[in-house]
Amino acid sequence: MIRERIITIWEYMDLSAAKLEKLTAIDRNNWYHLRNGRRRANEDDIEAIIKIAPQFAFWLTTGQIAPEIGQVSPEFEEADAHLQGPHVG
């Protein structure tokens, strides 16, 4: 579950393994292996993702959101952005 959520964040933020390497100092091959299912997510991966996307920390670790304290999921953030978009009328 954590691995899938990390991948969801990765895709939502439109990050490449090379960009993740620059942002997190974790080798891009480790990110490739995580994405391709060759390894499980570990503590370093979780901490690194939380540092670059703190708004997803609660969702990443629990699968739940708490928008009232700024803890959302990529899906929630995307839906909220559409609701906040320009209104016609």
Secondary-structure map:
Blueprint: H1 2-12, H2 17-24, H3 28-35, H4 43-52, H5 57-62, H6 74-84
Describe the structure.
The chain is built from six helices and no strands. The chain has about 90 residues and is an all-alpha fold. Helix 2 (about 15-25) packs across helix 3. The mean pLDDT is about 95.
Q: How many H/I helices?
A: 6
Order of helices and strands: HHHHHH
Strand content: under 5%
Query: Which class of secondary structure composition applies to the elements?
Result: mainly alpha
Could you name the CATH class?
Mainly Alpha
User: What is the total tally of β strands?
Assistant: 0
Principal-axes geometry comes out as globular
List keywords for this structure.
434 Repressor (Amino-terminal Domain); mainly alpha; 89 residues
Summarize the structure.
By secondary structure, the protein is mainly α. The protein is about 60% helix and about 0% strand. The protein is globular and about 40 Å long.
